[in-house]
Amino acid sequence: MIARHLYLSLAGLAGLASLGLAQDVLFPHMHGLKYSELDQAVKLGLTTHVCKDEEEWYGMTTADFAKYKAIVIPDCMCNTSLTTIKFLDDTKKTWSPAVTGNMVIIGTDPSFHAKWYNLPGAYAMMRDSISLVSTGKNGTGMYFSLSCYYQRTAAPMTIQSLSEIGHFQVRGNLSHPCLNNAHLVAKSGVMTTLNDTIASNWNCSVHEAFSEYPRAGAGSFEALAIALNATGLGQRSFADNTTGIPYIIARGATPLGCGNNITEPAYNEECDNGPANGTPGDLCSSSCKCLHGVIAPGTCRSNVTSSSPSSTYSSTQFSNSGGIACFNKFLIYQSLSDRDSTLAIVFCHRRTFIIKLLGYLAFFHQITKGPADRHGISSRAAQPLSCSQRVFARFTQQSQAFKPLRFSVSTTGNCHGYG
Ligand SMILES: *[C@@H]1O[C@H](CO)[C@@H](O)[C@H](O)[C@H]1NC(C)=O
Ligand SMILES: *[C@@H]1O[C@H](CO)[C@@H](O)[C@H](O)[C@H]1NC(C)=O
Ligand SMILES: *[C@@H]1O[C@H](CO)[C@@H](O)[C@H](O)[C@H]1NC(C)=O
Ligand SMILES: *[C@@H]1O[C@H](CO)[C@@H](O)[C@H](O)[C@H]1NC(C)=O
Ligand SMILES: *[C@@H]1O[C@H](CO)[C@@H](O)[C@H](O)[C@H]1NC(C)=O
Ligand SMILES: *[C@@H]1O[C@H](CO)[C@@H](O)[C@H](O)[C@H]1NC(C)=O
Ligand SMILES: *[C@@H]1O[C@H](CO)[C@@H](O)[C@H](O)[C@H]1NC(C)=O
Ligand SMILES: *[C@@H]1O[C@H](CO)[C@@H](O)[C@H](O)[C@H]1NC(C)=O
Ligand SMILES: *[C@@H]1O[C@H](CO)[C@@H](O)[C@H](O)[C@H]1NC(C)=O
């Protein structure tokens, strides 16, 4: 039984890759203040555009956002009101599909600590994070300081403005006493100035700690910095034998222990091919995640599994074992865990596609361009659609984990033009 159909026009995204970049980094209006993040971006040699008012941001299309190497949502000087980032939440369906590049989400307020205390660590945090997100590779990146928006709340809160990217939860009430021992647990060649000493002892270094974030698949996130030895919800262990709770997370960084040619699932590695990680042709990313899905720890699914199209609905079924299937124009992969669900993929003409998830446990929620969701589905839609690209399928869990194991392909209905 078909639970739900979803129609998504990708026409608006067509040809994004061919658009020239306007400036390197986009800043929202955000109270019209001048933030240290802007100075740091300029010092890094990046060109910047600051929205002249909120209306400018609201008027932007996905293609407009995708013109930038990075979007920087600065720390609004330790503002505690979520109203400050309402613009981000209101427009998330527009900007999220553009953000396919590196991301850094910061559970503290570097602009505040730079302005009022001139802390070298605050400048270094902004500088390194902006460097990571504006590499210009893998699409538009994003820097997002959570400022002090969630710092008062002891219970985990979902970051609603990021819901198109994935499921993120943070909690606050962390100042009894302050979490002041910061420790970096991931690295990147472009992050050269921040270290544990200068990230620590900010009175308080940590305002929001992450209890949940997407951790599976090529589009997922790594802890970049933790509140060392902090205990409770969100506490994790890292490859250097430290424990703590992440307060800065990133997409595009290399976690400690990744790159030693040993797959360590305990540290959230799906693969580790040593120096080959992230190099062309290797199936393992520089973050030790399988680019096209994982079969078993250390064994990544290969890029392309070809299949032949069928002409009737449900007539072609693949024993997919949680992996990837390429139907000439799409790659879909997933890693959930209920074998009774079935995913059907239908290709249509004019860049419109429908994905129908068959199965009583789940219904199809959304197709969008973005990283892994909370259930480990990690794929993305891109233009032009080809086997080297991935379709994003995001599902809403109903009652238990589900895992479509079989695909069916159809060219019936109002669709045609199957590859
Ligand atoms: C925080 O932002 C809100 C709305 O964006 C504003 O009304 C408030 O004055 C700000 N508070 C501080 C302390 O800056
Ligand atoms: C915040 O933490 C303190 C100390 O751990 C605790 O006493 C207080 O009840 C917490 N506040 C909330 C709102 O949970
Ligand atoms: C951390 O960075 C500061 C400022 O650049 C530097 O003085 C210090 O030596 C560094 N500490 C370590 C442990 O590298
Ligand atoms: C921490 O707070 C103390 C007491 O208010 C102050 O003297 C010190 O300068 C602060 N340090 C930092 C790094 O903010
Ligand atoms: C963190 O915990 C470890 C192990 O208990 C201890 O050796 C280390 O000194 C602690 N570090 C800090 C900064 O508390
Ligand atoms: C972490 O601890 C394990 C077991 O105690 C040890 O084998 C390993 O060498 C340690 N790793 C580091 C980086 O210290
Ligand atoms: C990585 O490990 C494999 C075996 O697990 C080995 O064949 C290969 O030579 C190693 N590569 C490096 C660079 O050490
Ligand atoms: C681009 O993404 C791939 C796959 O996730 C990753 O291996 C690579 O490091 C990324 N490139 C950059 C510059 O972040
Ligand atoms: C996947 O395979 C296709 C052709 O087989 C190739 O063009 C593409 O670069 C590969 N993608 C990756 C990420 O290796």
Automatic annotation (TrEMBL):
The entry's keywords: Signal
Residues making up the signal peptide according to the UniProt record: 1-22
Domain of life: Eukaryota
Protein name: Uncharacterized protein
Annotated organism of origin: Podospora appendiculata
